[in-house]
Fold this sequence. Notes:
The protein is mainly α.
Amino acid sequence: MNLEKFEKLDENKKNRIIEAAMNEFIKEGFNGASTNTIVKNAEISKGALFNYFENKENLYLYLIKKNLNKLLENFQDRKELPKSLEFFEGLELFINANINFFTAHPNTFKFLANAIISAPPHIKETVLKAKRDLQGSVIKYIIANSPKEIFRNTLQIESIENIILILLDSLSNK
Length: 174
């Protein structure tokens, strides 16, 4: 991938490519998405698209990472809140932040949901790992800023993190 060249493009052109690709992936899924449609709607040449991303899979993975980073940045913007939140208040903050973010950015929600549900297995594995990593960093932050007395002394913090991640996975898969 030649992301360096892509990142140096003017914002308008980058946004056209991102928007055209996201819309096509949302509409058709990974397998049905057409790079011809993407380049037509982005008003660029097919050669330019492949110069930046080499193939459709790299473009898709780029969009996944970009959208997950937007989600993480959305949560990090809220880290300015009081440091000693109760654990469940922190979890509620994270959930509400995601709901508000996805309400304001419906295409991000549609794209990521589609990627989780219908991406080819090798890509889906990457998506789920990236999602768990994002959730893990949020859970670690919430636990680190929660009063320690709410956790039983016999519990390992890593065990608490894993239990919460399993819970979040179950909820998001529903």
